[in-house]
Automatic annotation (TrEMBL):
The keyword Ribosomal protein does not apply. It comes from Streptomyces ramulosus. This is Putative pterin-4-alpha-carbinolamine dehydratase. One of its GO terms (molecular function) is 4-alpha-hydroxytetrahydrobiopterin dehydratase activity. It comes from the Bacteria. Pfam families: Pterin_4a. Gene3D superfamilies: Transcriptional coactivator/pterin dehydratase (3.30.1360.20). InterPro entries: PCD_sf (IPR036428), Pterin_deHydtase (IPR001533). Keywords: Lyase. Belongs to the pterin-4-alpha-carbinolamine dehydratase family. Its EC number is 4.2.1.96. The keyword Acyltransferase does not apply. It catalyses: (4aS,6R)-4a-hydroxy-L-erythro-5,6,7,8-tetrahydrobiopterin = (6R)-L-erythro-6,7-dihydrobiopterin + H2O. Coiled coil: none annotated.
Length: 102
């Protein structure tokens, strides 16, 4: 599989417009979620893990009592943000509401 190409700042800004709540900080595509309690937050971690295995692309997930932080970039592209990261972000957003995330 070829190494993914890093996105330009303009491409990143345009793609962020499709993902409300997501931002770029310290070279990572990031999003925080809040839940009604611990179980829905933990369940979303498991759901994301399943998606990540399917895509072969993994984010850093930080689970708190009723919070989940997601941070991702592409290590094989020198730790830059690529289309792979946005693809994962879109998949995460697609399941977030089912877990009661806001």
């Amino acid at each position: 599989m070829p190494t993914p190409e890093p996105l330009s700042d303009q491409d990143i800004a345009a793609r962020l417009g499709e993902l409300p709540g997501w931002s770029v900080s310290e070279g990572l595509l990031r999003r925080g979620y809040h839940f009604a309690g611990h179980f829905p937050a933990a369940a979303m971690v498991i759901h994301i893990a399943q998606i990540q295995e399917e895509l072969g692309h993994h984010a850093d997930l930080t689970l708190g009592y009723n919070r989940l932080a997601v941070a991702v970039n592409t290590h094989s592209a020198g730790g830059r943000i690529t289309a792979l990261d946005f693809g994962l972000a879109h998949r995460i957003e697609a399941v977030a509401a089912a877990h009661g995330a806001d």
